[in-house]
Amino acid sequence: MIRSLARAAAILLAAALLLAMQRTTPGYSEITGPITQNGVAGKVVTARGFKLRVEKVILADKLRWQSLGRSYERDTGGVWAVAMVAAEGTPASTTLAGGIWQSESGLRFDASPRASPFRGLLAEARLEPGLARRGLMVFEIGRDAARNGALLVSMSRWPRLDAQLRIPISDEHIEQAETLDLDTLL
Q1: What's the pLDDT at 30?
Q2: What is the model's pLDDT at position 93?
Q3: Residue 186's closest CA among 78, 65, 102, 104?
Q4: Which of 69-78's residues contact partners 24+ apart within 8 Å by CB, and which partners?
Q5: What per-residue confidence (pLDDT) applies to 22?
Q6: By C-alpha distance, which of 54, 82, 77 is closest to 139?
Q7: Which N-terminal residues, if any, form the signal peptide (predicted)?
Q8: Residue 71 to residues 27, 49, 52, 56, 82: CA-CA distances in angstroms?
Q9: Of 50, 25, 22, 75, which is closest to residue 127 (Cα–Cα)?
Q10: CA-atom Rg of the chain in angstroms
């Protein structure tokens, strides 16, 4: 009788341990996810393959620019977040395909393709070692996502087991504009 109670207790203990291990083991996306490196806006941050410095972020209701002899103007239901950055490849040439604005609540906004005719976008631009290139990263975000956000930047759009810079954007690095003329920034 005591042996059967001991066996039952051992089986229940083993089942509880297995359940606890199953519930606490990280999932595949967590295990193979990006390797986050934190940085500070205004300072050069180095990741595997590139360096980046966020100069400032400008929040605007409308964007305006000229490209190929044509005028463009875009508005949005939220707000435009335009990050002015300088980046360079290290130790070899590279591109930055991953640009995300992360709100304080964790919502993520990919770089907007609606500003793609503008020539100064940093996405997919070739970055050379030793030659810092200034450019813009443009996001359409919700108005409530503008404050206390962070910029997530990586060489690939979905980094797996690779560096992703996370740069919180403080209020001192944010400016406001009703209509932002992108041609005046670069």
Answers
A1: 81
A2: 95
A3: 65
A4: 70/117, 72/117, 72/118, 74/114, 74/115, 76/114, 76/140, 78/140, 78/141, 78/142, 78/143, 78/145
A5: 87
A6: 82
A7: 1-20
A8: 47, 36, 30, 25, 18
A9: 50
A10: 23
Segments of the chain with pLDDT less than 70: none
Thinking of the domain 33-184, which architecture would CATH place it in?
Sandwich (2.60)
Structure tokens that stand for 60 in this block: 């605007």
Q: Where do we find the tokens 């560096």? A: 163
Phi-psi region of 97 (alpha: psi -120 to 50; beta: other; left: phi over 0): alpha
**Identity (one letter) of the amino acid at 145?**
A
> Cis peptide before 91, with omega less than 30 degrees from 0?
yes
The DSSP symbol for 112 reads: P
